[in-house]
Design a protein that fits this description.
single chain; 8-stranded antiparallel sheet; alpha+beta; 5-stranded mixed sheet; 168 residues; 4 helices; globular
């Protein structure tokens, strides 16, 4: 027979467990070398064995038939683009969600980027074609990496290490 105190303890334990499950994971850190454990120049095999990326798949058609990429696995969202030669090395990492650079991530604005990266350069020449502005963080601020800022909402949508590539 379950007593009231046992039932209360089990209920409290269930609430604590539910809160722990619902709590979001902390964002992975973006640096010039990569995002979290996903580092540039790691092989696809290394990334796959660590459970960081999905299977190798064809990359951007504009780069030719030899291009390859892989999806980032949770908690990150995005992709890794690889070199054209074997072994496939991570060349470009593009993150849509799950990562921040010095606290700046998806949904932040250019003034917030400039506050953390004072030498960042804003390039609005990509607005007409892609609807995005590119904000490049130079080496002296801890880069090189880029933020893609939606021209309509003026908020960060992507982070690319070292650059954001377009394939459309």
């Amino acid at each position: 027979m379950i007593t009231r105190s046992t039932l209360a303890a089990l209920t409290l334990l269930g609430v604590v467990a539910a809160v722990a499950v619902a709590a979001p994971l902390p964002a992975k850190q973006v640096t010039k070398d990569g995002v979290g454990q996903v580092k540039r120049n790691m092989t696809h095999k290394e990334l796959r064995e660590k459970g960081l990326v999905g299977r190798l798949r064809p990359g951007c058609e504009l780069g030719g038939g030899a291009t390859r990429s892989a999806r980032l696995l949770a908690p990150l969202r995005g992709q890794v683009n690889y070199t054209l030669t074997n072994p496939r090395l991570a060349k470009i990492i593009i993150v849509r969600r799950g990562a921040k650079a010095k606290g700046v991530g998806r949904g932040d604005t250019i003034p917030e980027i400039k506050a953390k990266f004072p030498h960042a350069r804003v390039n609005k020449q990509t607005e007409d074609v892609f609807g995005l502005w590119l904000v490049t963080v130079p080496k002296r601020d801890g880069g090189k990496f880029q933020f893609a800022v939606d021209a309509d909402t003026e908020r960060v949508t992507l982070i690319g290490v070292p650059i954001i590539t377009f394939c459309e």
